[in-house]
Design brief:
alpha/beta; N-RASSF; 10 strands; 56% helix; coiled coil; 7 helices
């Protein structure tokens, strides 16, 4: 996501915005890009001309949905204490240092004034080759830098600091200016890129671009005592550039020492203020004691004996009421203790009942098992009884059949006997 903001009438594009990026992050990034200490605010201008100051906690992804609206970075006139301190530090520089194209001290002061609330930002310039470079735009800038270097040569001692493990910035000129990084220790946040393009000014969209090189800010990764570190280009080995880097290091060391001195002075001032407040409190207590001492005889003379008796009676009533309340509190405590004991007893009874219920449930389950076993045995007995009844019925049928056969045989025997008798009679008669 990108956002266009006008800084001093020139359009700037803020790149790499995330859903968590706030207006405060944009203001800090633009202030570091501008390189001047101060109190800034972001103004929202509607197409109808209405303006509104954005809150620092507003999210930037809500602003990109209004492409017709204009956003302007405005510097407020009221300066804070840190800005005054940065101005006092800037007042100690020489005019040539203040006219430098790369305003290192002011950028450092701006970064130090916002280090407690800002994240990690880096400035990227849109060149033809697509890489981030620092280069001068005219020979006048080079001549001013040479004058500044010659002026600062007798002020700061020379030191030689090389760091070949860091990234370097390439310049297209034959005598390139110093390329460096100012690294500051910050919390890990998504970097916001500021790209300077020829987008026109606020009043005239086709005006020429006003560009000035700035120092890129990157996160610090070393265990240094100072909050800033200058890393020079390992390809630039000219003594002039090394001396300039050493002078920048001396500047940063001087600023750091001055900041430490100011912090110590502020601590001493706060301690003095605490001591003054403590002494004023002691003086106030002494005055109050003396006032009470002078007022006591007057108050003792004003009160008569009857009034003292009334006060004494009132005190006795209060004492009796206090004793009555104390007795009530004692009774309430006793009642509460009894209730607590009853609750404990009820709780124990409930637990006992629960245990009895569980035991009864276990017994019921056991009896259910026995009943199921009895039912199974009864079903088996019923089945065997049915089989026996069937056998009895079959045997009865067999018995009936045997009796019927026996009757038939008897009938046949009787018939044979009758015939034999008849035959005997016939034989006798014959």
């Amino acid at each position: 996501m990108d956002l266009r903001v006008y800084v001093d009438g020139v359009a700037r594009i803020i790149c790499d915005l995330t859903p968590t990026t706030t207006v405060h992050d944009i203001i800090i990034a633009l202030a570091q890009y501008k390189g001047k200490a101060g109190r800034y605010s972001l103004i929202e201008r509607a197409p109808d001309g209405a303006q509104r100051t954005l809150s620092p906690h507003e999210l930037t992804h809500e602003l990109i949905h209004h492409p017709d609206w204009t956003y302007i970075l405005r510097q407020n006139l009221d300066f804070s204490q840190k800005q005054k301190r940065s101005k006092s530090l800037d007042g100690r520089k020489t005019p040539l240092q203040q006219q430098s194209t790369v305003e290192i001290p002011s950028a450092v002061t701006s970064s130090s004034s916002s280090s407690s609330t800002s994240g990690h930002f880096r400035t990227v310039y849109n060149n033809n080759n697509g890489s981030a470079t620092l280069s001068s735009s005219s020979s006048s800038i080079k001549s001013s830098e040479k004058k500044k270097h010659s002026h600062l040569r007798h002020i700061f001692p020379s030191e030689n600091i090389n760091n070949n493990n860091n990234n370097h910035l390439n310049s297209g000129d034959s005598s390139p200016p110093v390329s460096f990084f100012i690294e500051k220790k910050r919390s890990s946040r998504t970097p916001v890129q500021i790209i300077e393009q020829d987008l026109g000014t606020l009043d005239n969209q086709h005006a020429t671009r006003r560009s000035r090189p700035k120092s890129a800010l990157s996160s610090s990764s070393g265990n240094e005592s100072s909050a800033f570190r200058i890393v020079h280009n390992p390809n630039d080995n000219s003594p002039h550039l090394q001396q300039q880097q050493q002078q920048y290091i001396a500047l940063l060391k001087m600023l750091k020492s001055q900041e430490i001195q100011v912090e110590q002075q502020q601590k001493e001032l706060s301690e003095k203020q605490k001591e003054i407040a403590h002494r004023e409190q002691d003086i106030h207590l002494i005055d109050h004691d003396s006032q009470l001492t002078t007022d006591c005889p007057v108050y003792s003379e004003e009160y008569s004996k009857n009034e003292l008796d009334k006060e004494f009676d009132y005190e006795r009533k209060l004492h009796s009421n206090y004793e009555h309340l104390q007795d009530q509190i004692t009774r309430c405590s006793t009642t509460i203790e009894q209730k607590r004991q009853l609750q404990e007893q009820i709780q124990s009874n409930i637990e006992q009942i629960h245990s009895d219920v569980e035991q009864i449930q276990k017994t019921i389950l056991h009896e259910k098992k026995d009943i199921n076993q009895y039912q199974h045995d009864l079903e088996r007995s019923t089945a065997s009884l049915t089989q026996q009844e069937d056998l009895v019925h079959v045997l009865t049928q067999h018995n009936d059949e045997i009796e019927r056969i026996i009757q038939e045989r008897r009938q046949q025997i009787n018939n044979l006997e009758n015939e034999l008798i008849k035959l005997d009679d016939m034989l006798i008669n014959t």
